[in-house]
Write a structure and sequence with these properties.
With 139 residues, the protein is an alpha+beta fold. Helices cover 36% and strands 12% of the residues. It has 2 domains: 74 residues, Orthogonal Bundle (Arc Repressor Mutant, subunit A); 62 residues, Ferric-uptake regulator, C-terminal dimerisarion domain (Dna Ligase, domain 1, 2-Layer Sandwich), CATH 3.30.1490. It has a 3-stranded mixed beta sheet, with no helix packed on it. The mean pLDDT is 84.
């Protein structure tokens, strides 16, 4: 039995974690369901949703809630940044490490105690640019 505050490792959670850690695509819950269902054919979409929420609440995965898009999930829990294509919606990791001075700067201009930050970059991915959908200009 899991100790209070810990999450019990079920077969479903283990498979979801394994698949998320293997993927770099930051899938939606529906995409996770389709992938996990190949290994666990009897798993339900509701079970996947519940387990993704539990795993993200416990800090075992990241839930990416970006404005105007479906929630996506990331098996990497270390602080890192993402870039999202505004044309196709794909999300990728940015190879740059966290910028530690952001928290310090905001502590000086806000009454909030800044604990952490999440930063999302928005752009057009190479596939969409190659497909000729680059009709948006940056500001």
């Amino acid at each position: 039995m899991a100790a209070k505050g810990q999450v019990r490792t079920t077969q479903q959670r283990r498979v979801i974690m394994e698949e998320l850690c293997r993927l770099k695509s930051h899938p939606t819950a529906n995409e996770v369901y389709e992938i996990v269902r190949k290994r666990l054919p009897r798993i339900s979409l509701g079970t996947v949703y519940r387990n993704l929420e539990i795993l993200s609440e416990r800090g075992m995965i990241q839930k990416l809630e970006m404005a105007g898009t479906q929630k996506r999930f990331d098996g990497i829990t270390e602080n890192h940044y993402h870039v999202r294509c505004i044309m196709c919606g794909c999300v990728e990791d940015v190879s740059s490490g966290p910028i530690p001075t952001i928290n310090k700067v905001l502590n000086g201009v806000s009454d909030y105690q800044i604990l952490w930050h999440r930063l999302e970059f928005v752009g057009i991915c190479p596939r969409c640019r190659e497909a000729g959908t680059q009709g948006i200009t940056s500001t």
